[in-house]
Specification:
Strand order of the largest sheet: 1-11-8-13-3-2
Largest sheet: 6 strands, antiparallel
Distance between the termini: 32 Å
Mean pLDDT: 94
Number of strands: 13
Strand content: 25-35%
Structural class: alpha+beta
């Protein structure tokens, strides 16, 4: 099953082990809030992350899955570990953040959170986005790796109340991957993760890119 059919894939050796260690050393300077497993806007805190997220290599990788030049949208750092061991139920990433509210058909509902406008865009916007998750540790079922419903990105946007019925006969695929690899996914593919049964660091840099052009004067917001 290719990417267009499955909605996700794993590519090994995107980062060398030296590059992984360099990033981990930089990330050690950032303190995770208790009971929270991530840091948003991580590229604004660490130049090493910003350089990687906007590097020719990663932009070229994103470009392979988009129809126009890749634009960086946002970065998040995740660390599932013994102190922050969580599960995420089946969902689609279907909300984006932008600098200002605007009126355009198919965009909504809107909400203002942490001084940023959040909105559900039309499906065509999500189809012109790609998420790149860089594994800084090996991920496995035992440490709570992502799992996917292959092909579910082709089902459109499913209302929250209908998710259980929509997925009741679907088979999940666990996405184990080595350190230095990248998991690439459409944001609206159904994905989830379980609590780690053998908790250890599962550190990930989550980058999002798009080829969709926002209205003039509007920018993507983290």
């Amino acid at each position: 099953m290719n990417f267009d059919e499955s909605g996700f894939e794993v590519i090994d050796n995107i980062l060398t082990q030296d590059e992984v260690q360099h990033l981990l050393l930089a990330l050690e300077t950032q303190q995770l809030t208790a009971l929270r497993g991530g840091i948003r806007r991580i590229e604004q805190l660490l130049s090493e992350v910003e350089h990687l997220a906007k590097s020719e290599m990663i932009l070229a990788l994103a470009q392979n899955y988009l129809t126009a030049p890749a634009q960086f949208v946002r970065a998040i750092y995740f660390d599932k570990n013994p102190e922050n061991n969580w599960l995420v139920s089946w969902h689609q990433d279907r909300t984006v953040s932008v600098s200002d509210r605007f009126e355009k058909s198919g965009w909504g509902p809107w909400s203002l959170k942490a001084d940023a406008w959040h909105v559900q865009p039309p499906l065509e916007v999500l189809e012109n986005m790609i998420t790149i998750r860089l594994n800084l540790d090996a991920s496995s079922r035992s440490n709570g790796c992502l799992k996917f419903i292959p092909g579910s990105h082709r089902d459109g946007i499913i209302k929250t109340a209908q998710v259980a019925a929509h997925l009741h006969d679907k088979t999940a695929v666990y996405c184990a991957a080595p350190a230095g690899s990248a998991v690439l996914m459409r944001p609206h593919i159904f994905h989830a993760s379980e609590k780690a049964t053998s908790p250890a660091n599962r550190r990930v840099l989550h980058f999002e890119y798009t080829s969709y052009s926002l209205p003039e004067g509007i920018a993507w917001s983290a």
